[in-house]
Amino acid sequence: MTELDRRTLLRAGLAAGAGVAGGALLGGAGGVAAPAWRPVLTHGVQSGDVTADSALVWTRADRPGRMFVELSRRPDLRGARVLRGPVLDPTGDFTGRLRLRGLPSGERLYYRVRVESLDRHGLCGEPLRGSFATAPGRHQRRDVRFVWTGDIAGQGWGIAPDFGGMSIFRAMRGVAPDFFLCSGDTVYADGPLSETVTLPDGRVWRNLVTPEKTKVAETLAEYRGQFAYNLLDEHLRAFVAEVPQVNQWDDHEVTNNWYPGEILTDARYTERRVDVLAARARQAFGEWLPVPTGGPLYRRLSYGPLLDVFVLDMRTYKDPNDGNTYADPARGLLGREQRQWLVRELTRSRATWKVIAADLPLGLVVPDGPGAQEGVAQGDPGAPAGRELEFAEVLRTAHRAGVTGIVFLTADVHYTAAHHYDPARAAVGDFTPFWEFVSGPAHAGGFGPNRLDGTFGPQAVFVHAPPRANTSPAEGFQHFGEVSIDAASGAFTVHLRDRDGVSLWSTTLPAP
User: Fold this and answer.
1) Which residue in 436, 391, 431 sits closest to 409, CA to CA?
2) Chain-centre distance of CA 113, in angstroms?
3) DSSP secondary structure string, 311-322?
4) Rounded to an integer, what distance in angstroms lies between the CA atom of residue 423 and that of residue 457?
5) 0.90 exceeded by the pTM?
6) Which CATH superfamily is 146-509 part of?
7) Peptide bond connecting 449 to the previous residue in cis, omega within 30 degrees of 0
8) How many CB atoms lie within 10 A of CB 435?
9) Residues of the chain with CATH 3.60.21.70
10) Is the dihedral of CA 456, 457, 463, 469 positive or negative?
């Protein structure tokens, strides 16, 4: 942990102009091979969980070394403060992150990362550059813009250079968001890739394939390889070098529709205990993404007086998918502690808008075989049952406490939609009307639409889904959402966009 003096940043100059592009691979196509003793940064740089005064900065080297970060308000990094980071070694797959503290709020900062050899003092490989914007402070009323999506490189659709790679990240970068919310399925550890797939029109999709992507992930090395694979894409690397991330995990980071205690029957797995697989996946998730470690994955992030984001973990505490009785109040999707935390933090929040970042949709039925449900909705439009009881409690308590401005954002179902929830249409009436916006996939098979469950009175105001299951990214039906909050009026504008950034539908919600 490093404390950064605000006066030091002031001496480094005021930041101005556009962000510094970064994250290009070295030693690969277009790169320069470093001498054997110089550490090479293999997968770019990233930042994440940025607050008003702190940020995580991440990188990975090809061998042991000490991480250093130079940080400045100036894009040319003149007068930058040099911050000493951790040693990168095999125990963390040569990844490392440094938490920067004492940052100025509401500003774009510029950084450069290098790794110094442990064998030869002062010898470093080529550094990489990035930038991030800190969140506004508690009393800084400023415009906020962010994007969200999920579901990256799934259903057999990997990085295909002939089809432009994962170009949706280029479109999201073009929006110039303050941050990126990834609503789960950051990787597809259960989705092996084949070298070629023939598309319906006869064209051939040619995947870039690594050894770890040829089978389902089971070992720690194979789970690490899932995250390494995604960062081979130039559009993703350039995006995460400029846009800080807020990452959730869902099922495909481990295996499809998993829950704690599950024993797999899938013949592809030699390790059938999901708890063992999940522990390895969680370690890889924490190593390869700029996410906090050592505590729960659910958390609240504040962006000035206009926005609080409540990041849920709907996987770690999940009950089995084979029932809807909710017999154990300590389980459900959230678990007792997370549910109480969400209620408590919602009622304490004074932000105009309270975004609940959910890695599973609230009102869409997501089956997991006959009689089993993967998500919240139980498939019965009547009174809340099963996991719906958890969210009935959250919504009821927030309503009685006078909480306004709740919006749900999610992905998971591989299409985009806007749902409005109203107690006048619901089987339960004790909640304040709210919206749920769905957007994805980022680079995976297109599916949907799913059936809506009427318990909370949802209405599908907009839906954009493919004509058949598992449409490739080449056929479109890839989506991301954009939210912009106007500082003057507090209005909350949502655009549901396609992979090229074209707005398919939008709405503006007035400040409550």
Assistant:
1) 436
2) 23
3) E---STTPPPTT
4) 6
5) yes
6) Alkaline phosphatase D (PhoD) (3.60.21.70)
7) yes
8) 18
9) 146-509
10) positive
Q: Rounded CA gap, 10 and 8, in Å?
A: 5
What's at 24, amino acid-wise?
A
Residue type at position 314: M
Pair 149, 182: CB distance under 8 Å = yes
User: Of the CATH numbers 2.60.40.380, 3.30.300.30, 3.40.190.10, 3.40.630.30, which one belongs to the domain with range 2-133?
Assistant: 2.60.40.380
Q: Please, are residues 432 and 406 in contact by the beta-carbon 8 Å criterion?
A: yes
pLDDT in tens, 189-219: 999 999 999 999 999 999 999 999 999 999 9
Task: State the Cα–Cα distance between residues 264 and 277, nearest whole angstrom.
Answer: 10
The CA distance from 265 to 111, in Å, is 47
Report the C-alpha gap between 98 and 46 in whole angstroms. 11
| Pairwise CA distance, residues 447 & 415, whole Å | 6
pLDDT tens sequence across 146-199: 999 999 999 999 999 999 999 999 999 999 999 999 999 999 999 999 999 999
Candidates 415, 418, 409; CA nearest to 470 is 415
CA dist 104 and 381 (Å) reads 49
CB atoms closer than 10 angstroms to residue 300: 16
For the chain, residues classed under CATH 2.60.40.380 are 2-133
Which region holds residue 51: left if phi is over 0, alpha if psi is between -120 and 50, else beta?
A: beta
Q: Are 187 and 152 in contact (CB under 8 A)?
A: yes
Q: Which amino acid would we find at residue 149?
A: T
